[in-house]
Structures are given as C-alpha cells and as structure tokens.
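Model it.
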Amino acid sequence: MRHALRLAERALGSTAPNPAVGCVIVRDDRLVGRGWTQRGGRPHAEAVALAQARSAAFGATAYVTLEPCAHHGQTPPCANALAEAQVARVVAAMMDPDPRVAGAGFAHLDQRGIAVTRGVLEADAQALNAGFVRRVTASRPLVALKIAQTLDGRVADPNGNSRWITSAEARRHGHLLRTHYDAIMIGIGTVLADDPLLTCRLPGLERRSPIRVVLDSKLRLPPDSQLVRTAQECPVMVFTRDQIGGGELAAKGVAIERVRQVENGIPAIATVLEALARHGITRLLVEGGPRLLASIVKSGFADLLHLYRAPMFLGAAGKPAIGHAWQSDLISAPRLRLLETTMLGPDLLETFSFS
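Modeled.
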C-alpha cells in the first residue's frame, strides 16, 4: 500500500476534479501491475494496472489507495474491471466520499465474491487526497499557503525587493511544488508589483503548470502582463467585484468570475473557494502577498503552510509575511503542526498543517 500511495502522489495536481489514486497488483509475491490516475483523471489507476497485469491479475491481490468506483462516467467502473479480471482480493486504503460511490464499490466487489480489506494506511490516504475530500464534502479545495521569508519573517526589504530571498535550490523546489496543485492564487497587488508568470519552468514539467487565479476586485489586471499574454497557453481566472468591463482580458483568453462580496478589499475568500470547487479545483496553492495571506488565515480556510526560510535578517522595516488584516494573541493564535522538514541548499523548507 505504501508503494500505491507513492504512485498516487505522482498524480497530484494533474487529475482534478478526480482524486489521485495509485494501484498495485501482486500475485504470488510478485508485482504484476501498477498504475496511477492519468492526466485529466482518466484512465483510472486500476485500469492502468490491470492493462499491465493482463492475465496475471487472475487470483491476484489489488492494493488501491481509494475505493474502486462503481458508477458509469467517462470510464467504466473500476469495481467491474477488477471483478472481470477475477482478482481474488482488493485491499483499499479508504472509502470514496463521492456519493456516487461511498461504499458501492466495496459492495459490488463483495457481491462478486472478491475479498475486501479496508482501512490500510487510511490516514495517509486521507492526507494525500485531502483536496478531493474537501471538494466533495465541504465544497472547497484544500488551501495551502506558500511563503518564502527571512528568519525574522520578512518577505521583502523596505524598498519592496524580494528577489531573491531564497536560494536557487529553494526556487526550483517552489516550481516543483506548483505541479502538485491544480491552481495557484495571488492578489492583484502581487501582479502589479512583480508581474509574475506563475508557471512551472522545470524542464519536462511545463505542462504541469497550475491554473493561475488572480483576486482583483477593481479589475486592474494589465492586458500586457505576463499572465494575460500567456492565458491562451496556461489558463488564467480573475475574480472581480466589477460587474462590467474586462472585454479586452476575455478576448485574450482570461476567464472572469464576478462576485459581489468583498472582504478586506479583496473578493470574499469563501465565495472564491466555492467557485473554484465548482470548476473542479481540489488543491489550491496561495503565493499571494501579506494582505491575501492574512485574509485566508483569518477566514480559517488555510490547511497547509509551505514555509521556505532563508538564513538572513531584514529587520523591522522589512515587509512582513502576514499583513495587519489578521492579528491574534497567545491564547487564540493558531498552533500549527510540523509535518516535514527539507534542506534546500542553505534554506529550510518546513511544511505545517493548520489542524
């Protein structure tokens, strides 16, 4: 199952709105097939593994990170495919929360006489597909914050310069991180200050760039910005309060979502997340500035934090990572849980959970 989970991880950021699933088929202590959900969500992991295993799937055990689907969509049900291949046993990490499945896959396998074992490394599988689960059960994607800062919590010097706080190694990892998310979000302030591209520019992974999302309440996104100029190659979505305008942006391929509610000068986070979920987004990476990060922390929607820390100080005049829109005290301050640490050249990456 650990191998199946590692395979599933390869699909993160490329399968939305579907989950990232891994499948390993073993017969007589020999791996005969393996697969993970392919780009766009199909074919499913079980189908890929069964195609590799062929006749060796007969009497084998299939390890799958999520309950096999039991409904007819754009692909046939995986529970049917496993039964027709006559596997002897299916070991699953977790039940599929999708109401179209939610135990029906297990029931189908049981009816066909296939032994089913559930809950193997379930916590790991739940963490892996937390975005899919949140979209199905809470109508929002998983939200991860990304911050690159100094040891004293500054993301830019007093003049607003932030290039580069972290090392080349950390910046390369940041590009890799983007490939694990369906969408990446910033505020219009970051666009106007930095004119970012927000794509993955690692060789061979350019196609794994996430959808770019901009919160722009007054629709100030420049038509000549890098985001707009590349909107035909990599999608751009803008959330705005303005109920008119945007024709030039739309003509260049920018999708415009109009919202009425604004908080702290930006489109309401809850409204934005609900809309992204409707568009199939399961995992959202936020690389915004202090005001946007503060709004998300204040809203209570932050799930993860990827914190890149460089061994330098900028002092009190530097720009803080979290803006003044959110403040707390020692009693009410969120206590994050450290999940993982990684050294990237001279810099330290720490991944935290907000729960």
